[in-house]
Amino acid sequence: MMVDLLTLEGELLPSELERPKRVQSRSNRVAQTVMVARRVLEGEGAGALTVRRLAEEMNIQAPSLYKHFSCKTEVELALIEESMFDIGDVTHQALHESGDLSPIASLLTAYRTHCLSHPNLYRLATSGHFPRENLPEGLEAWAGNPWFVVTGDPSLAQALWSFAHGMVILELDDRYPPGSDLESTWRAGTVAFEQMVRN
Amino acid sequence: MMVDLLTLEGELLPSELERPKRVQSRSNRVAQTVMVARRVLEGEGAGALTVRRLAEEMNIQAPSLYKHFSCKTEVELALIEESMFDIGDVTHQALHESGDLSPIASLLTAYRTHCLSHPNLYRLATSGHFPRENLPEGLEAWAGNPWFVVTGDPSLAQALWSFAHGMVILELDDRYPPGSDLESTWRAGTVAFEQMVRN
DNA sequence: CTAATATGGCTAACGCTGTTAGCCATAACC
DNA sequence: GGTTATGGCTAACAGCGTTAGCCATATTAG
């Protein structure tokens, strides 16, 4: 992982990458479809996100959508891209508004709060095959950079992100035994990684 | 989380729970179906696991399967149960065969190795809605116990498991940037949690 | 031993999914 | 003004999980 460095507050910190641009701008109809898709997905879950349902929401017939998209996964790709931009924005912001929290705690809190409030979008964006080739260049690196910033180490960054994703996805899927004190679990993980950057 | 304690090697360690029994034994045809389902799923992925395909493998017609299962998810439930037993066995064994590794390192290594070598079964067992109500009583607690044993604390146990699951599922879905040094990432996470139990 | 019942196959079909082919009206362009 | 691209439409296909209903065999009850 190649990363530029700059001096910030006397410490060597990874520079913040530039927010990438979308590959190609969307036509009106495409943008509208993605909007509708997002609303349906977030409101009613992946099961409701069907081609016919999207068409119905736009008052056209299902096959007409194929004049704008080559397949359903292309719509989902747009949603994944939006989700990654959103998460990137939220996590970058958490770096600048840590308050009295440690950078790691701030990042984790922001990540958890945002992702849990967009469960279906998060699941879509983080489960199954990752369409790396069809995403804007630099998006993945930009979205992942905050994890590197707060740890200062690529391996620790990935480990921290893995912990955060595991927590979120398991919480979303109701995977922890009933009555689990997840606040405490987040705290335990936070401390574990905080201890790693102090040394 | 209520856990019995016993004295082991001078330390207070959580007792190992008893391996639960299956709720009801399977008829021949049911057992055969689950076997076939597992083979198809592991060999060709979730997309190949269709009712018609299962029937074809057994030389019967698709609707005939409904004489043995009320729905497809019941077959998947059996696979989830098997997967949890397998993972539980592997992780419990890792506790007794740590070698020169720390208990945490041993557990994580065993978990990673096993889960990565059964990708489709792991995805099925750990993604989406968790059918807690339809699993054998005690299975969840038994399978989760090793995480508690190596940490000595429920919150730390859940945090460690979340890290491990995040790592495995993200690795399975090819979610880490190409060229990532995942060995190093596992090591970083391992150290982070090991440091938490020393203190 | 016979009659009733349960077991486990079968075919046909339904409603849903994503998707394709092909037709046609309007809009834009040389 | 003729040509082409845009973006609708209907009809239809294959595959999905699933249901209804029929029927032969196996098991059990009287």
Uncertain stretches of 5 or more adjacent residues of chain A: 1-12
Q: What is the averaged pLDDT score of chain A? A: 92
Number of domains of chain A: 1
What do we call the CATH homologous superfamily of chain A?
A: Tetracycline Repressor, domain 2
Number of helices of chain A: 8
| Largest sheet composition of chain A | 2 strands, antiparallel
Distance separating the two termini of chain A:
22 Å
CATH architectural designation of chain A: Orthogonal Bundle
Elements of chain A, N to C (H/E)? EEHHHHHHHH
Task: Determine the CATH topology of chain A.
Answer: Tetracycline Repressor, domain 2
Shape of chain A: globular
Structural category of chain A: mainly alpha
Please give the most extensive interface between any two protein chains, plus how many residues each contributes: A-B, 45 and 45 residues
Keywords:
homodimer, 199 residues, mainly alpha, Tetracycline Repressor, domain 2, two-stranded antiparallel ribbon, 8 helices, globular, disordered N terminus, DNA-binding
Describe this structure in words.
In chain A, helix 1 packs across helix 3, helix 3 runs parallel beside helix 6 and helix 6 packs across helix 7. Chain A is built from 8 helices and 2 strands; from the N terminus they run E-E-H-H-H-H-H-H-H-H. Chain A has one domain (22-198): Tetracycline Repressor, domain 2 (Orthogonal Bundle). With 199 residues, chain A is mainly alpha-helical. The first copy, chain A, is globular, with a radius of gyration of 19 Å. Helices cover 60% and strands 4% of the residues of chain A. The model of chain A is unreliable at 1-12 (pLDDT under 50). At the A-B interface, helix 6, helix 7 and helix 8 of A face helix 6, helix 7 and helix 8 of B. Chain A binds a DNA duplex (30 and 30 nucleotides) through residues 29, 50-52, 60-64, 66-68, 71-72.
